[in-house]
Amino acid sequence: MAQNPSRPHGARRSDDRASARPGSRSPGHRGHRPAQDGDARPKRRWTSDDREHREQRSQGASRRPNWIPPEERKRDDRRGPVFRTRGGAQGGRDHQRDDRVHRGERPRGFDRARDEHQGRARFGAERDERRGERRFDRDDRRFDRDDRPQQRRFADRGGDRRFDRDDRPRRSFDERGGDRRPERDDRPRRGFDDRAPRGERRFDRDERPQRGFRDRDERGGDRRPEREDRPRRGFDDRAPRGERRFDRDERPQRGFRDRDDRAGDRRPQREERPRRSFDDRPQRRDSTYYPSTDAKPFAPKEDVVLDRLDATATSAADVEGVSFADLGLGAGIAGALKSMGAPSPFPIQAATIPDVIAGRDVLGRGRTGSGKTIAFGAPIVELLLRNRPERRELGRPPRALILAPTRELAQQINHTVMGLGRAVGIFTTVIVGGVKQDSQVESLRRGVDILIGTPGRIEDLVEQRKLNLGAVEIAVVDEADHMCELGFLEPVQRILRQTRPGSQKLLFSATLDAEVQTIVREFLPEPAVHEVAGEEQSTSTIDHQVLVVDRYDKDAVLEQIVANPGRIIVFTRTRAYAERLAEQFSDAGIAAVSLHGDLTQAKRNRSLEKLKRGKVDVLVATDVAARGIHIDDVALVVQADPPDEYKTYLHRAGRTGRAGNAGRVVTVIAPARRKRTQQLLDRAEIEAPMIPAVPGDDLLDTLTTAPTAEPAAE
DNA sequence: AAAAAAC
């Protein structure tokens, strides 16, 4: 989901750039480097020397995964020597110490390179130079690495790369603002009458044996609908789903779910709820068709697009001329928003803010990059402000809580909300794992108004009685559908149960679907449901392609892809592969870092920071970075492994093309995967050509350069 | 089967 529409950062960044100086500004800082223009050089890629150090550094730290997917095993063998070297007798602490030393001695010119890179030079002529350098590196390394065939091929190809990046003007901030409104009011809005009465779906949850989460643990099992021996799925659950299949085509665009049977497993709906239906598909009506016996034919092996939530749609037109003040936000907050680069509300914000301020429970769905963080962050600050106690007491318990699925996302949300709160004297803090508790406990002790964090550490502190959630009046679950998946659901429930009884709850996600119903049922008695009109994929500013690549060519193709200019995020299915790819790219002279759960939090932060600051252009990540993380100007998202479910596709893809900017997504698949991928795309309602590719294809060199067509609606 | 989330 999209926290910060890129404007806040974008706006500021260009200013910073103008005065950008290498290193720290304060002479006392250890990173201080006086500005001297003598050594100005374009951004450089890692030299073989840097790489060597890097390799050494990683030796001690890198953990050999105990499980490697079959398709990767082969590769590992091929790279045997590399792994052996690392895993060998010299791995270990020595190298970790080494690590620290080398880290201090960042390659000279690195910072400068970054600054230039971030500055106007980013898409400028220096690129060519940088390219040259990169190629050079590559050639360079050929000597010591001729054991890697694909590299050779690649190096030879360097010459014909194009550098037409320059003609793509960097978007100015204001342009972006304009861009931002992807909305089209001409889109047939969903009529209320379309909605099948909820009453039809009678699922009596209660008689359903409580599903063991253990089962779910082997997700594999669960996901494999083909098992018809599953006793636990209620037929009733399945029926609608099966039915849905027939109408898939005419289904209005966004499906929310592809989590195959997960859906079914998740307790669907209780009809006793007067609440609005979760489904608005007209076909639903016929749901008298309850093929209670035909579990098998449906074998929802593909996705079950979970019921859509029945929502009130807000379009850009509805928001025209509306200001944050109109929505009920005070001048202080509106001012803060403005200074953060959000002068006027986005549709999702306009839709949810009034309801949140009115104290209602809210379900909000807005596509990636549409500004959801502010949609809940701003009204929360407003509410707390309105009922502010006479004085801020030391150690006052938090009155608002925001839950996020990853630490990075929690940090990011905090960044935004803190910006809003600070303007009016509302304090926030982040409570996440992976770092010491001390400072967190300390800020709690001082007293905080809004708590933002991940479930684990929050529960931890609660158990230690260092955190009391009893005063929480508003709780938000960001990426709510994800937070309702196995492993997250229960902690989230436990946490929400500790909030003040009757406290207000908000659920947000770009792919909000009925997966959240368990939470909704328990915590949101009568929620307002909001979404934004005109968000079907066809209006997206993201261009999608699928590259069909032979397994043996995959790494070479990926390497060629990431050699493109511009910021690139590569997603992998496993941590090990993320690590390996990042290394491969680095070895090839393309500065890349990894981001996944096997890294220490410090490294995770560092990796993300490096990408944000332009120290590297390539981030290889697992799905830890799939949701919510905002990075400016990601030119390309590469899916080195196709996602399992369409929601994951949408979230990964959403790292680019934020706030109406153009973006591109390239998914690399094996030939055998075509059919499955097509199904997934269909579910996501994304149209993407399937293009066979082999290393060396020109196509692979222009993935970030060929401008993406903007949809007419923009 | 993977990934994320506490120590």
Query: Can you identify the CATH superfamily of the largest domain?
Result: P-loop containing nucleotide triphosphate hydrolases
Runs in which pLDDT lies below 50 for 5 or more consecutive residues are: 1-44, 51-305, 708-714
- Might you state the CATH topology name of the largest domain? Rossmann fold
Helix fraction bin: 25-40%
What is the CATH C-level name of the largest domain?
Answer: Alpha Beta
Main structural class: alpha/beta
First CA to last CA: what distance?
Answer: 21 Å
Number of domains: 3
Radius of gyration: 25 Å
Number of helices: 29
The rough form would be described as globular
Lateral arrangement of strands in the main beta sheet:
1-8-2-7-6-3-5-4
